[in-house]
Amino acid sequence: MTALSSPLGRLRWTFADGLTLVGRELGRLRRQPGELVAALVFPAVMVVLFGYVFGSAIQVPGGGDYREYLMPGLFAMVTFTAAQGVMARVAADASRGVMDRFRSMPMARLAVPFGQTGADLLVGLAFLAVMVGTGLLVGWQPHRGLVPTVEAFLLMTVLRYALSWVGVYVGLAVRNEEAANALVPLFLPFTMVSNAFVPTGGMPGWLRFLADWNPVSALTAASRELFGNPGVPSGDVAWPLAHPVAAVLLWSAALLAVFVPLSLRAFMRRGR
Questions:
Q1: Is the residue at 9 inside a domain?
Q2: pTM for this structure?
Q3: What sections of the chain are H helices per DSSP?
């Protein structure tokens, strides 16, 4: 008990319990292979659908191949699925009483949401790997070398982790799986009202403002810049598009600062 009373001891306790719950979440996916396969196929379907069906009708600003323009946007779209997936899993555990059982056990309180977000981070890496492979097959490639490419994927990973905490909080707040599933369509506008698929210049002023300040747009713009793909913003553009890397880091820090304590508070209060 003395070891656990120190900050370092509590941190080790939280980390150890969190890793155990990460293993639980990954084990659940292994027992539901159909869900995992469907989730992995989805990114590939998006590449084909948007790249070949819609791509023939869209002009890339400044010229260039649309599929190279598209891939950073699809990477951003997959990144934003973190909130949806974690929300659904947390709500399902909460509605079935799993969270109450966790709360009654001698484990670190932060370990439960840490396990959910940690497992999603690993699953998200698998999603990105599938999409990268599909993108390479359809002609996409990074052009600026290894270091900028790694930086782009690190940005996606950081923002995905921050968004997964949003999913934890919402999943605890809605209290049941049906309500969580009903909220999933509300996430679609965040990916569609952005520069992920089309330039924002042709949008009405109010909609363009929302799109330019959307974190999806910042991540997409940062990825295009780091990959050296077409569509990098230039000229008089909104601050997040002029400084997309900084914008993504600020969005990530803000989401973590807000939703980590909110998630822990919601977990501690649930069932009272």
A1: no
A2: 0.85
A3: 2-5, 7-31, 33-48, 66-79, 81-95, 98-104, 111-137, 146-174, 177-183, 188-192, 205-212, 215-227, 239-242, 244-269
∠ Cα 82 137 118 (to 5°)? 20
DSSP string of 129-196? HHHHHHHHHTT----S-HHHHHHHHHHHHHHHHHHHHHHHHHHHHH-SHHHHHHHGGGGHHHHHSSSS
Residue 89's nearest CA partner among 36, 14, 127 is 36
Identity at 156, one-letter amino acid code: M
SS3 231: coil
Indicate the number of domains in the chain: 1
One-letter amino acid identity for 78? V
What is the tens place of the pLDDT at every residue in 47-79? 778 777 776 667 777 777 888 998 999 899 888
Note down the domain range covering 181: 24-269
